[in-house]
Amino acid sequence: MPEHTQSLELLAPAKTAAIGREAILHGADAVYIGGPSFGARDKAGNAIADIADLVNFAHFFHAKIYVTLNTMLHEAELEAARKLAWDCYEAGVDALIVQDMGLLELDLPPLDLHASTQCDIRTPEKARFLADVGFSQLVLARELRIAEIAKVRASVPSDTVIEHFIHGALCVAYSGQCYISHAHTGRSANRGDCSQACRLPYTLQDAKGQIVAFEKHLLSLKDNNQSANLHALIDAGVRSFKIEGRYKDAAYVKNITGHYRQLLDTILNERPELHAASSGKTKLLFTPDPDKTFHRGATDYFSQGRKADIGAFDTPTFVGLELGTVMQVGDKWFEMEANEDLANSDGLNYLHNREVIGLQANVVERKGKVWRVYPNEPMHTLQGLRVGLAISRNRDHAWEQTLSKKSSERRIGVTATFNETTEGFLLTLQDEDGITAAASTDFAKQPAKNPAEAEGHVRDQLARFGNTDFELNSLSIAWTQPWFVPSSLANKLRREAVERLEAARIKTCTRLPRKPSAEPPALYPEESLSYLANVNNSAAQAFYTKHGVKLIAAAYEQHQQAGEVSLMITRHCIRYSLSLCPKQAKGVLGVQGQVRAEPMTLANGSEKLRLEFDCRKCEMHVMGKIKKHVLKMPQAESVTFHPRS
């Protein structure tokens, strides 16, 4: 059985290299981070030099660094993307995360390739094709049920790693299948510049124009949380567990990475046939709590089947946890009962007329069983604040202060052997991965004046690993008699051995080579591609042509689909969430046959979007067309697409 099939990888996001270091210290086996460009998060780029430093830090723990090169590329960007791939290779990066198949037609370095979630991997056939063309790791669509994941796992070679999102924000559309941002603003989600139309409030109207829901965030989903499904995901074949959040701050990454590190470590203790994908033990200096950092509520989405309560319809913001109830309102303060202690600068909020009202607790005072809160905002501006109102906390100042400091340690276990030699002494270190390093010194040996204390003195000096990333598990001393060992000599041996072991660990952290493509070239599962394939350059066109596709449409961003098309394709169904699905009515006396999946309309001001429902596939399509002002925007060089003769 291949080694990696027994290895579990916790994959954490990093907006910056500094956050990437914290992710590793808090238990990540791998980190994904954006380079200077083409990273699908336009405001989360990093210099190659910073990534190179992060690689060295990660490789000490045998953790990996993946760079996101996962935007759809314009024709004029191909050469820059190719050069960036080589820059990443020279920086020591372990893999590139890719969306645009045009990259595979370029002169890339021998670097491992991962298929981005933007590739829309939902079927065994698509997964097998991507594995056959050279991808070693596949990031599956978030919408898949656990049984569907298992089918994908069974369809690909054993050396293909299945990666799945386990936490963070959910895009309502299948990743790579959302064009509403570009259609309305010219900002392409496929190029990392989403305007997040899914988080806006909409009024829902039925086919007769009657209002079904008013000013609700009907396309906004709760956040993903698979904490309860890790065992099932492992059994289904997932081996890389991905946390979303390359725009998130360090506190989020520390907290969520630490949370899943603890959960996975518990599983590893229960299942000795499995092991972590990197080295070292993580000691958290706080208790992780996913509810303390940004989320829109929690859902495990479709993992265990379709559910009606996956939407964050009331608000797309973070309201946090309910803290207590308002007991009294004054002219400059209000008092509340609270189930936890408050602190100055806490962020509080409440719901008023379907709107979340936020405030900052400037000063808080305990008054017996209640807390008096002096808000930073004038009381008269806090509309709807009244006795009996529920108050939530979305910024716990004390919690944030804890995470702003050192909050974790990660150390590699070592065993040490201290020997005498003909010329002096030798210290040998062996780490938990079996890597060894040694340091020796010439020294004219002298019998210890106090033999009973000599060994204890040596042990005390050699055990001082506290300012390193190593932790001493055991130390053996092999000598013919107790010798006098000066503290300076023992410390020098320890420092030199540690430095050599650090260098040896980085040197032995080898990268996987790029997986070769199958020969003859694998055939793509379909012979024609619509705009949904996101083919935006001649290299991508050549790729699909080589793999048997006869008809290739241009990407939506090339504006050859000016009429109404699916701007979003989503497994989330508003009808189902509002109990208006014909399948829900099946068998219900007096209701069966009365509910039909007729089109509906979403309205946001003058903006109207038509909803179509594909009940056979259990999918919803958000229909629309490109705005006139977007059509007039200057476009990148277009590519002429010809049918294959």
Provide the CATH architecture of the largest domain. Alpha-Beta Barrel
CATH superfamily of the largest domain: Copper homeostasis (CutC) domain
Under CATH at level 1, the class of the largest domain stands as: Alpha Beta
The number of strands is 30
Question: Spatial order of the strands in the main sheet?
Answer: 1-2-3-4-5-6-7-11
Helical residues, percent:
10-25%
Distance between the termini: 44 Å
Classification by helices and strands: alpha/beta
What is the CATH topology of the largest domain? TIM Barrel
Output the radius of gyration.
Answer: 29 Å
Q: Average pLDDT value?
A: 94
Instruction: Assess the beta-strand content as a share of residues.
Output: 25-35%
User: Major sheet: size, sense and barrel closure?
Assistant: 8 strands, parallel, barrel
Low-pLDDT sequence parts: none
Which key features would you list for this structure?
645 residues, alpha/beta, TIM Barrel, Thrombin, subunit H, 4 domains, eight-stranded parallel barrel, six-stranded antiparallel β-sheet, 30 strands, 23% helix, 27% strand, globular
